[in-house]
Task: structure prediction
Amino acid sequence: MELPRSLLVFSAFAMIDLHFHCLPGIDDGPDDWDESVALCRHAAAEGTTTIVATPHVLREGWLNEDPRERDELLLKLNTLLGGRPAVLPGCEYFFSADAVELWEEGAAGPLAGLNRTAYLLVEFPGSSVPRSAGDVIHELAVIGVTPVIAHPERNLQLVREPELLESLVRKGAVTQITASSLVGEFGRAALAAAGDFFRRGLVHVVASDAHNLDRRPPRLAAARERVRRDWGEEVEQLLFDVNPRAIIAGTPVRSA
Ligand SMILES: [Fe+2]
Result:
């Protein structure tokens, strides 16, 4: 799809949110256009300049297999927002053993799709990691696609077995920690797990996974502040600026 060139221009103070449910009526994000616009404007008021719209794809109840429907909603949202913030196309892909075929058909991704970037946001079921995950991540890496594992700190198996996350990262995945987890809003276990992943060098980006203003607001600015305080400015820049830009551009990221 064609998006205005202006959406590609990031200011020196850009803040990019790579995981955001902002398209109305398509998943468990906003119900209507008013809510959608209010949620995006709230993020802009916190300093977010670019959002990647990541509706659920292939999740039970929200299959959203047709990218054209997502694109139509995205164009209308950008028109309503007038570029503040800019909203780029993406998806949050529910893990499937046939991820490679779906990617090649164009249904699965990409995370940020201006030029079909080489990153795919993938969510696992909440309590476990499918046995085929390692093999599928390897297969995606072989065809040049880097899976971004969404919110590993909220996956019960990865919380219990951080070595499993380590092995998935070794096979080629990168990770996205949820902003709200870093400020304690997903509970102590998620906060502790996120800290553990930081110490193990397993964190690549922080994004909001925002859904609505009342229960799942963006919180990206608060998380950024917390990361700067706990891990320093260099890590903050990497996770909120350098790596998100690299993902959108389809270039390699570094771990914190
Ligand atoms: Fe999400």
Remarks:
- Confidence is low (pLDDT under 50) at residues 1-12.
- The beta strands are 16-20, 50-53, 56-57, 86-89, 92-94, 119-123, 146-150, 174-178, 205-207.
- DSSP finds ten helices and nine strands in the chain.
- The longest strand covers residues 16-20.
